[in-house]
Amino acid sequence: MSSTLRTLMAGNQLTSFIFISSVLVHTHSADDIYSAVMPQTVTALTGSCVQIPCTFDISDFEDKRKRAESIYGIWTKTKSQFAEKDGFIAFNSSENIIRGFSDIQMTGNLSERNCTTVFYNIMKNHSDLYYFRLEMKPNVFEATFNPSTDVTKKTVRINVTDSPEPPELKLSDQRVMEETTVNLRCSAEAPCPKQPPTISWSNIPKSAHNTTQLQEKPDKTQSVVSKLTFKVSYKDHKRNITCTATYPRNTPDASTVETIVMLRVLFPPKETHVIITPSVGTNVTLTCKSRASPSNDLTYTWYKHGEETPIAWGMKINLTQTQNQTGSYLCIAQNKYGNQSSEEAQHTGQSGLSHLVIFGCTGGLLAFFLLSAVFFYTMRKKASRQAHVIGSDQAEDKNRDTMDICTNNVTAISKNGEKKETDDLHYGEIDFSKLQTGHKTEEHSNNVSETEYSELQVTQR
């Protein structure tokens, strides 16, 4: 390389150094000490907003603020080196410049060292690094702040996602004793405090009480925290409780995420009882059932009615048809928190066949008596209906005869052969055994038989 070329390169480097030095001197003096506090990363939800909490401090701030005619903040994107001509300015409070966003508002007061800013209607392409710059005019202070001296953590990063993180759900104790109070805490990030998520609980006891509020975290970001409190019983063991966070946003659908936690309740044996299988028979198995937590250390002890010492240990015992094994049995379940005794169970020792025979005979007799009762009831009702019909017919015939007698003109024949008509006659009894032979009134040559008359007694009413 020629000496002329080396001289030219050295001149260019010197010129660049002088230019950069002049920029730095123009931005702030060597004695200025400045820093900013903001989260290293914030997660935003598409269609919502994101708030970047921001505070700063510089040496002799009050003196600089009094000398400055104006103070304003700028947010640049991707590059920390401020260069308006490069087009990396996202927001400039002095000229209300907004680029690439529908709206950006600096909600913090710069005169009080607060540079908090809200970015609205966040979209996926807004994910990037963002740098804050403070300018105090004229020529009082100008600097771009980095919240960390680590080059990999120079400023805040905004990550935009379509679905938020599930809420964080914590129990005060992983295992709680029955009849004690349990506390659950569910927290959901609130990147947009103007549209915070709502928290709801499901599958909780009716006695549960909850409170919800918006809280600030150490890095100045916010979250919604809901606390749930209730007294547990043994029935709450293995209960799944769900905390659901619903995020509103400027999209057709809200975004919902949830977290589930299972309760672990410690309690002594409950609901202890004996099961006999089969229910009848000469050889049966007695099983002791009980609820307890923990259940892996449950022990079972068997007693027979009238005996003070245990007869067996274990969840199950087998009984056969012997005279000394019939009777009442009970079991006692125990874990480290207590014990409980079951009710007595009766073992009669009767075979299943005898029971089937008894049950069959009893059922047959009941069916027979029932059918017999139905049959006799039906026949009796039928006979009663027929008697009613016959009686009605006879009464109708009798009434008809009576009407005929009372209404028809009766021609009575007297003893001397005379006819007498009457409208109201009373008939006496007719004696058909007494036949009277009348006198011959006329003779015929051809053996005409004699006319015979019966005697009819008629009295006038």
Description:
With 461 residues, the protein is an alpha+beta fold. It is built from 3 helices and 32 strands. The chain has helices spanning 3-27, 61-67, 352-407; strands at residues 34-37, 41-45, 50-52, 55-58, 70-77, 89-92, 97-98, 103-106, 117-120, 128-137, 141-145, 156-161, 168-171, 176-177, 181-189, 198-202, 209-216, 222-231, 240-247, 255-262, 265-277, 284-293, 299-304, 312-313, 316-319, 327-335, 338-341, 345-347, 410-413, 419-422, 425-437, 452-460. The strands form 9 sheets. Strands 2, 5, 6, 7, 10, 11 and 12 form a 7-stranded mixed beta sheet that branches. Strands 23, 24, 26, 27 and 28 form a 5-stranded antiparallel beta sheet that branches. A 4-stranded antiparallel beta sheet has the order 13-15-18-17, with no helix packed on it. Strand 21 and strand 22 (284-293) form a beta hairpin. Mean pLDDT is 76; it is low at 1-27, 352-359 and 394-461.
Q: Can you tag this structure with a few keywords?
A:
461 residues; alpha+beta; 7-stranded mixed sheet; 5-stranded antiparallel sheet; 32 strands; elongated; disordered N terminus
Write a concise synopsis of the structure shown.
The radius of gyration is 57 Å and the shape is elongated. It has 3 helices and 32 strands.
